[in-house]
Amino acid sequence: MAARTLRIGLIPGDGIGKEVIPAGRRILEALPASLGLKFEFVNLSAGFETFEQTGTALPDKTVAILKLECDGALFGAVSSPTHPVKGYSSPIVALRKKLDLYANVRPVKTVLGAAKPIDMVIVRENTEDLYVKEERTYDTPEGKVAEAIKRISQRASSRIATIAGEIALRRQKIRAAGNPSIHKGPLVTITHKSNVLSQTDGLFRTTAREALADPRFSSVAVEEQIVDSMVYKLFRQPEAYDVIVAPNLYGDILSDGAAALVGSLGLVPSANVGEGLAIGEPCHGSAPDIMGQGIANPIATLRSAALMLEFLNEEEAAARIYAAVDANLSEGKLLSPDLGGTAKTEEVVADILGRL
Ligand code: ATP
Ligand code: MG
């Protein structure tokens, strides 16, 4: 079999991003040759340090190389300055926009054997809703009023529901291949507040329903949940969910909430997905409080590398990485300090590479 070569951009960014992204590169390089995968890496810059050095947080070159040359990428973290800095805005938000990375995918999963097992994926629409950032403030006789546009389109709602359906099918396939899971069937839960916002969330809801009615999703059960009761149930009965699809703002809130259910931020991966490009990104930030000490947990990044591979249709390679990480966690001997252990980043990476 001819080897498939994947070109992967590496964007460490700031803080512990510089410590964990090299780990992501190493796990890809350590995948067994029998998988028929080769990797070419391109180092790319973005972030606050880049801004201080060059005057821009997201150089055009980074965007162009990702767009024209890369199949995937790993993005570390960028620090947010404590005071607003003139001319600086988050490069990851800009990147999502410029590359039309329309889906933010966040799997939330407990280690095998956990007292309350959770295994779900939150699929958050990434391009519109209140994040179009069209706000205005005006004066009235009673004082100032501020308002923001919440924009929901059929196109964005349809493609986010479609990718949620595809993820549900892929998870079904992975389970059928004998991987243990707490779920029986593929299920997509559509989250909205259309009882109040009948036009915007109403459009999201009906469009998502239509997209998931496609015959290729005939094995996928579809349900709806109003976002407030979704939060309640997410905490009371997280095992009830398989794939959750939500507009941007609800998805943002739900995915941080769900991450809290499984412990450290250092464990939770994500992917930003568009046409022909998937960028893996750990959910944590630049963690200035622990940077430079060599103790950052690399697992969120290793899992983000695996998630990126899933969207490049390399499920087998992804499964290898997940299994090696799970083995490290269930044994529990080499854990980083955020998980109550004393291991350094380097020791955790070495242990997981050894298990590949
Ligand atoms: P930023 O502004 O870049 O988001 P932050 O101060 O909000 O930085 P986060 O990175 O969001 O910091 O982290 C929040 C907390 O979780 C910090 O105490 C940090 O040390 C811890 N943390 C985050 N990621 C990891 C990790 N990979 N390993 C260990 N601890 C982590
Ligand atoms: Mg943070």
Care to describe what's here?
It is a single chain. The chain contains eleven helices and twelve strands. It is an alpha/beta fold. Strand 6 (135-140) and strand 7 (143-148) form a beta hairpin. The chain is globular and about 65 Å long. The model has no long low-confidence stretch (mean pLDDT 93). Bound molecules: adenosine-5'-triphosphate and magnesium ion. Adenosine-5'-triphosphate binds at residues 16, 77, 79-80, 265-266, 284-290, 296-297, 300, 336, 338.
Provide the descriptors you would attach to this structure in a database record.
356 residues, alpha/beta, ten-stranded mixed β-sheet, two-stranded antiparallel ribbon, 11 helices, binds adenosine-5'-triphosphate, binds magnesium ion
State the helix count: 11
Cα-based radius of gyration, to the nearest Å: 20 Å
Q: How many strands appear in the DSSP assignment?
A: 12
Structural class estimated from helices and strands? alpha/beta
Query: What number is the mean pLDDT?
Result: 93
Strand content: 15-25%
Main beta sheet: 10 strands, mixed
The percent range for helix content is 25-40%
The end-to-end span amounts to: 21 Å
SSE string, helices as H and strands as E = EHEHHEHEEEEHEHEHEHEEHHH
In spatial order, strands of the major sheet run: 2-1-3-12-11-4-5-10-8-9
What are the bound molecules? adenosine-5'-triphosphate, magnesium ion
Poorly predicted runs of 5 or more residues: none
The dominant shape is: globular
Lay out the secondary structure.
Elements: E1 4-13, H1 17-29, E2 37-43, H2 48-54, H3 60-69, E3 72-77, H4 91-98, E4 103-109, E5 119-125, E6 135-140, E7 143-148, H5 154-176, E8 187-192, H6 200-212, E9 221-226, H7 227-236, E10 243-246, H8 248-261, E11 271-274, E12 277-280, H9 299-311, H10 315-331, H11 345-355
Parallel strand pairs: 1-2, 1-3, 3-12, 5-10, 8-9, 8-10
Antiparallel strand pairs: 4-5, 4-11, 6-7, 11-12
Bound molecules: adenosine-5'-triphosphate and magnesium ion.
Adenosine-5'-triphosphate is lined by residues 16, 77, 79-80, 265-266, 284-290, 296-297, 300, 336, 338.
